[in-house]
């Protein structure tokens, strides 16, 4: 977790003066990997598909490795930290949230799409998210994700109903620790978070 937070701090320092656009985040990620492996032309989809799915990680640090007297540079994946959510009035929201592959769709989101009129979840999920930022899920199926349309992080319950939202603080790669509010804008009863 310390490596990820250190890498995230570097990302934030390069981004002083406001949030970068989501396309900039994706291009930065792709450019970083392309610079780390200059012999290959990499697209964003290649970068994301090459990352491990079981513990989604972001390529953020270059590592030198010596092999047969030649030096090669490669990207070392850095694990995305889990989150401990607590103090939410809606007790089902509290718990540990683990990072998930941004290409996968939360089961609660699929349920909500079907409940709302049988909409296909894939095009809606792809439209709402940026395909780079991981979403987080609790063992109970509650999930949080970054919504590109309103530039907010959302926490939905296991049925896909929205419960809380927050403005990103300094990074689009991780949800904010503070600033969560209910859908009516109240801070009372909103969750608190810590990285674990």
UniProtKB/TrEMBL annotation:
It comes from the Eukaryota. This is Uncharacterized protein. It comes from Cyclotella cryptica.
